[in-house]
Amino acid sequence: MSYPAEFLYTKDHEWVLVEADRATIGVTDYAQKELGDVVFVELPRVGDSVTAAQPFGVVESVKAVSDVFAPVSGSVEEVNSRLQDKPELVNSDPHGDGWLIRVRMTDPRGTEKLMAADAYETYLRETQTR
Amino acid sequence: MKNRIQTARPHVNRNEKLIFEHSSPGKCGVDLPPLDVPPVSAAEALGEVYRADIEGFPEVSELEVVRHFTRLSTWNYGVDTGLYPLGSCTMKYNPRINEVVARLEGLATDHPYAPEFLAQGCLEVLHQTARCLAEITGMDAVSLQPAAGAQGELTGILMIRAWLEQQGNPRKYILIPDSAHGTNPASVTISGYQMRPLKSDAKGCIDLGELSQAMSQDVAGLMLTNPNTLGIFERQIAEISELVHSRGGLVYMDGANMNALVGVARPADFGVDVMHLNLHKTFTTPHGGGGPGSGPVAVKKFLEPYLPVPTVEKTPDGTFYLNYDRPKTIGRIRTFYGNFGMAVRALAYILANGPEGLRQTTEDAVLNANYVMARLRDVYDLPYDQPCMHECVLSDKRQAARGVRTGDIAKRLIDYGFHPYTTSFPLIVSGAMMIEPTESASKEELDEFIDALRSIAQEIEEEPSFVLEAPCSTRISRLDEAGAARKPVLTWKP
Amino acid sequence: MRYLPNSFHTRQEMLEAAGFRAPEELFAQIPDSLKLHSNLKLPGPMSEPELVEFFQRTAARSSREFVSLLGAGAYSHYRPAAIDALLSRGEFFTAYTPYQAEIAQGTLQAMFEFQTLITQLTGMEVANASLYDGSTATAEAALMASRITRRNRLVVARTLHPEYRQVLATYVRTLGTAVEEISWSASGELNLAVLDSTVNSETAAVIVQSPNFFGIIERVQPIAEVTHRVGALLIVVITEPLSLAILKPPAEADIVCGEAQSFGVPVAFGGPYLGYLATREKFTRQMPGRLVGQTQDREGRRGFVLTLATREQHIRREKATSNICTNQSLCALAATVYLCLLGKQGLRALAEQNFSKAHDAARKLVSEGAASLPMTGAFFNEFVARAPGAAETLLAELQDQKILGGLHLYRFYPEWKDHLLICVTEKVSRSIVDQTVQGFARLAESTPGTPAMLQGRHSRGERG
Fold this sequence. Notes:
The structure holds three protein chains of three kinds.
Chain A: E1 8-9, E2 14-19, E3 22-27, H1 29-35, E4 38-42, E5 49-50, E6 55-61, E7 65-69, E8 74-79, H2 82-85, H3 89-92, E9 101-105, H4 117-129
Antiparallel strand pairs in A: 1-2, 2-3, 3-9, 4-6, 5-8, 6-7, 8-9
Chain B: H1 19-22, H2 42-46, H3 62-74, H4 96-102, H5 120-137, E1 141-143, H6 149-167, E2 173-177, H7 183-190, E3 194-198, H8 208-214, E4 219-225, H9 237-246, E5 250-255, E6 274-277, E7 297-299, E8 311-314, E9 320-323, H10 340-376, E10 392-395, H11 397-400, H12 406-415, E11 422-423, E12 432-435, H13 443-462, H14 464-469, H15 481-486
Parallel strand pairs in B: 2-3, 2-4, 4-5, 5-6
Antiparallel strand pairs in B: 1-7, 6-7, 8-9, 10-12, 11-12
Helix pairs in contact in B: 4-10, 5-10, 6-7, 10-13
Chain C: H1 8-17, H2 48-60, E1 67-68, H3 81-87, H4 90-93, H5 105-122, E2 126-127, H6 134-149, E3 153-157, H7 162-172, E4 178-182, H8 192-198, E5 203-209, H9 220-229, E6 233-238, E7 255-259, E8 275-279, E9 292-296, E10 302-306, H10 313-316, H11 329-367, E11 382-386, H12 391-400, E12 403-404, E13 407-408, E14 419-423, H13 430-446, H14 450-453
Parallel strand pairs in C: 1-12, 3-4, 3-5, 5-6, 6-7
Antiparallel strand pairs in C: 2-8, 7-8, 9-10, 11-14, 13-14
Helix pairs in contact in C: 3-11, 5-11, 6-7, 11-13, 12-13
């Protein structure tokens, strides 16, 4: 699976799509492969605030639990409620239907430390050969 | 499908139902003796709280029950079935005599609130077991109350806390090496501490430099396993303890791997202040499919006042009694006196062996692990290349390149008639294959096991898909664990 | 060394193959200064006959020839022979935790059946595969309630088993959780008015035992109402679950937990026992301990696996719902076999027998003028009787007749001096009850001033 060019990425393998002050957040294809079959997703509630680089949710597979870190700060406007019943969407479509939350960003400059798709792919290659 | 050694075969009982599905109204597996007093109607006496039916409850005859569970048992693999090299779990032989003596009338039947003068036998078992464990660990006092290793950890950490509180400051953190069992961090959390991970060095041991940096005035102590989960003895344990003590902290040893040390070395001499033992590992009480365990805690003299109540003590005239009068105790950790039946079994094991037998047992356990390691290291990666103690940790590094991971190899071992080793632990080894043969494996059996693992390595070279499909000789094939977790079905419904 | 399968010769061969010259080299990684240079000072070795003799001698110094009227969290019931026969199958008792599902279906299916039986009895929706014992199950339930409600104040009935309260105190002391205790009313039931004035919006859970430590059956519904009104969870602890065969399950509770030793697990001087914990489906992910779930294999056949393991310590480590690693699998198997053998009819008939025998004994004690019953609440197989004199004298006299006459409540409740907690299970014959009643009556005769004391039922204990 390729990494969409319009996304930005974190070293913890989350992606974010920024549209004006709205940001959609999910985990990357690499992350879902590492986790294996996702069985449960724990997400914040609408109205909760999330802080960049702090965990905001949990993705569970059969034998692993992973915190999900917020790429940007903001308040949660929408959570992907389909994941309640179909957590496997994180596996089948991590960059699409498997998105986790949408936030209204409090500080749009927060994206400066994130990686573009090509930088993320380089980062992945480095991680894997280490 | 290619299957070189086929030991497990499907059998006629492969579709044993749930007991509820055998049920039909009117059947019963017991006959009660006639009531010898005038009946009192519970329905009348209880009124609205009376229950008229237990919906869905099974109704089956005795034979159906016996067949049902006998059939179920045949789907299990136990130490009695064959080699069970599950690293860190110590699946050794559970002597039959232990089961016999633990069921003797007087030991299996005494009530915990029986008056002490009528419980002298039971109290003697507890007292003597504790004394033996103190001698084996070199520690000064032992409580048998913790119900399992994890509860022993909780007890031990609570004692550390109580002692530090007495010194004026309980502190905040407990250091735990990154190779530790998962119970360690979990126990630390429920003791009210935060855990701080300690990175292992290139040899898989505690890094004194790291420790020195981490060991601040906020750190209550260090919780370590020795030998560690890589099966390696912490060579610098004395220096480690000294460092922790010099900064005012205490040393907790997870005694899960004590079977590598019995009769050879004693934790008390390492500077350990408090530790637990697992009677179901080192001292042959059965694992029972996941318990009951027993996790006695052993301490140095200065921590003795903090042991859980009651302690079992002996008067000068030889009478045993339960001592509840211990003002500094951390309190009670379990009802009554712990898993007494496990103490009976452990004592039987210690007595059966005596000092020389126990030492020979340790030696055999370490020899078996080293033998396996020596004979597999040319086909499986050995991430920490040094002699091991009671278990060795290989990795799937070479096989992973062919798309086969440790879990797959483990499943394939089942087709060869063996229980798998421990997979994916310790966490510091990627693709860990943790093998603990224990002293209970004969050379003959080990050779078969080694051949099986070598054969699997070859299969992976030639036809990795076989291995990915494994197991293929069991009653059922790989189960959908993701489905089980996504939509949990935890009870039978009609 | 009968347990070791390798001969001296084989060991030599293996040493050589592994690259060692002598056995001592196996321990080269242990610094010499840390090694033990002498033999451990331990008794043994012993042959099997010697072991048997040793333990028979030990077992003789016991109360095995006594009939016991002791209950108080450890109940003596008859154990059908099939239990030990099945438990003794090596495939069951020498297996590990069923992580490798394909070769552990026996344990897994039995645990699934156990979970089902516990939910049927308790009226809850899910149950785990067991915990250490009733006291730790109670402590775990309290921690679970704190997690769910994010509150840390517990309100606990003083009629919860005293040792359970002690264990709970040990578990929560370092976590900053406050525990408040509630007294009982004249009936022996929880004092509802005091409960009502004690719970508030900080209360995580109300913990109440039923039948309580005095044997009195609690009415759960009004307690649940008071509890739920402040948004707290109700934990009902049941230490004599045989009662559930004829008592309405506490369906209004949020967590039902306790001790299932009654179901085929020997009294064994206090352990190993069998803790259980059941709850509502919505709290499943906050439960401690193992869970077995149903699933299917690649061919669509039904099978069972450990599931929702991400709650547990080996995966979530310091964030786990509990540090528990084992369960009491073999004891849970014993209970499963026991409950299947007795089944719906047998269990109910046994519970009725216990009920009848205990009530018959209580009636005789009162009608002979030998004892008074200070509590008016309904009970199952255990009740409190006031001795007509010094309880110690009475217990000693009964001991002379090989009867353990109950638990002197003074041990845990100073206000209950000379009150005995008496349990009458199916194992206590009518003649033992008669002897006990006579013992009480003799004491009454020899104690001046008793008749006045025995007039009517006494209610005490409001002081909580």
